[in-house]
Amino acid sequence: MRYELYYWASIQGRGEFVRLALEEAGAPYVDVARTDGGEERMLALLGDDALAGPPFAPPYLKAGRLLIAQTANILQFLGERHGLAPKSEAGRLWTNQLQLTLADLVDEVHGTHHPIASILYYEDQRREAKRRAADFVATRLPKFFRYFERVLAANPGGPAHLVGGRLSYADLSLFQVVAGLLYAFPNAMTRTARQHPHVMALHGRVAARPRIAAYLASGRRLPFNQQGIFRHYAELDRQARRGRPATAAC
Amino acid sequence: MRYELYYWASIQGRGEFVRLALEEAGAPYVDVARTDGGEERMLALLGDDALAGPPFAPPYLKAGRLLIAQTANILQFLGERHGLAPKSEAGRLWTNQLQLTLADLVDEVHGTHHPIASILYYEDQRREAKRRAADFVATRLPKFFRYFERVLAANPGGPAHLVGGRLSYADLSLFQVVAGLLYAFPNAMTRTARQHPHVMALHGRVAARPRIAAYLASGRRLPFNQQGIFRHYAELDRQARRGRPATAAC
Prior knowledge:
- Two copies of one chain form a homodimer.
- Helix content of chain A is 52%, strand content 6%.
- By secondary structure, chain A is an alpha+beta fold.
- The first copy, chain A, folds into two domains: 3-81, Glutaredoxin; 89-236, Up-down Bundle (Glutathione S-transferase Yfyf (Class Pi), Chain A, domain 2).
- The radius of gyration of chain A is 18 Å and the shape is globular.
- Chain A starts with a strand and ends in a 34-residue tail after the last helix.
């Protein structure tokens, strides 16, 4: 069976968390909106009022007869099918909990450039974005990083993974969040990276996994850009106190 | 076994979604932070660096040896244990998907009064809140309501429930969101309520369920207030075009 992933063709966005899981699993999939007429098919599905179990927004995944939306929900499904999460109830709950916390962080990143309304341009909410990004960099970013560093340090399976002693989709997602933050906030991340060695080591290890490395080097990996969730506006990024900006593994 | 719910003692907040599920299930639980010294125990747990599998923030639930955080994650666990979600994979995924979409709406409601930073007072971000709330009322609130109305209308099990022909935790959560919005945005909700009869009927039916009605009438149900997620600031609520403001069933 070949999965069908429905997500915007021009950005990594929330779809990227699903793409990374599919790539690591080696699961065959088609990125529908990047095929001919695919974006129209994606939107037709969103607008189909007769559809039982409709998605509210992309990403969504077709898996045979299942149509699954919400990033964390899709990952839970893929994690179970492809060994990207523990089989035990406690392990599944914990992996999902980490993913939902990462999703909260991703929402806050989006809020740094769109604090007023998603339908407005950045330029129309720039003043508010500066205020919000200043708080994000000063208080929220460090709080989330402290949390994930602490999770890794206290993991009974060792600090190489978030969940036990094996890779899970939460690791892939933490990699993606770090990669995005390095793109969006290179200055703020200089200090943050130094202070959170376990998180940064995980980012590097995931990037070096054979299937992920091959994916990142391929045309399937879209570059970060100014339409996605992780955007770089120099005016929103705190100036580095010292040293060179941190750089991404991808 | 008696569950232990950890959440702020003075607000409904995100903990209320868990309380409603526990109440509907008739499950014994203690609302820890509302007991003597409970809030200190809640915070001690958050600050325990040696804890494997720590929560990022309340609410969290202790269930025997399990410690589960993130509202949607807790509800998925309770739904499975107490028959508040279908047993099939498709049904479980769909219920979780709906809950995550409701969580997105709840985040957007919070953003209407805190568009800049959670640590700042409302009064310090009032100007931005007015802009954000205007967009929420004009575009986001109707979009979410249209979605849930459409889900109910297209449900093969009938429009009385979100998932199949039986109550699920997603119904309880939709009730709570509607109740909160009626408190926070009574004017904007006048028109919204009229246009979404299935959603409003569900809200009324859930409020009338014996265990929920008993809960809502009890001292265990905290009133909505100006510290929670759903807050009423008249200046953020659009004036009703006509008719009287909508009223809540609780």
